[in-house]
Write a structure and sequence with these properties.
Length: 220
């Protein structure tokens, strides 16, 4: 029987490396008790509203840093104004809490820590990409299921209250995700900066899980 030809070692795409390296952290957030209650339609409307409020503080910071880094050769590749979530979050909060919503919400201690770390990324473009990846790719993917559950659970009419998860402006979401992975793969990273980005993505997941844990203590 002839010997099969040797298998060539094909370098792993960075997007796959990043996904593999953060999978356990992603799963921890996805399977958190608060998240499970949300996905199973068992979370109170107050709990959902509290989550939306904490998202708002995180995205205000993330999108502000994104604009600062819009022309950076690394972070700027991920600057997409059509992705921005703050206007949708504000619309959701007005629907949920009324026009004076901003007077009714405040960042939790865990969210303040998360926001502070995001703000530090203005000086670390690779780190900003890590935070951008952990938030937006999750929202574009799993967020679509959350939107359907929220509309059904809370009886939102025409999606109002779950606009945060509406990415209709992106067109084809599978095409967008594929393009996002290509941008990750084309980043001019050496081994050190690649490792830094991966470590920051792990930290981003951890910080987000701590926000969920805080929400769970108050709403589950």
């Amino acid at each position: 029987m002839p010997t099969p030809p040797p298998t060539l070692d094909v370098p792993e795409a960075f997007s796959e490396r990043l996904k593999t390296a953060t999978w356990n952290h992603h799963a921890a957030a996805e399977h958190h008790g608060f998240t499970k209650a949300l996905l199973e339609g068992e979370l109170s409307l107050d709990g959902y509203t509290a989550m939306v409020a904490q998202h708002h503080f995180a995205y205000v910071a993330l999108e502000r840093v994104g604009r600062v880094l819009a022309h950076d050769p690394i972070a700027g590749r991920f600057h997409h104004p059509e992705l921005e979530r703050v206007p949708a979050l504000e619309a959701d909060l007005e629907h949920l809490l009324g026009p004076d919503w901003s007077e009714q919400v405040a960042p939790s201690p865990a969210t303040r820590t998360y926001v502070a770390r995001i703000e530090q990324m203005a000086d670390h473009p690779e780190g900003f990409v890590a935070h951008h990846y952990t938030r937006y790719m999750g929202d574009v993917s799993g967020g679509q299921f959350i939107r359907r559950v929220a509309i059904k659970t809370y009886g939102f009419t025409n999606g109002a209250g779950a606009d945060f998860y509406d990415f209709g402006s992106l067109g084809s979401l599978p095409r967008f995700r594929a393009g996002y992975r290509e941008r990750l793969n084309s980043l001019p990273l050496n081994e050190d900066t690649a490792d830094l980005l991966i470590q920051e993505a792990r930290l981003a997941y951890q910080l987000n899980t701590e926000v969920l844990a805080d929400l769970g203590r108050h709403h589950c």
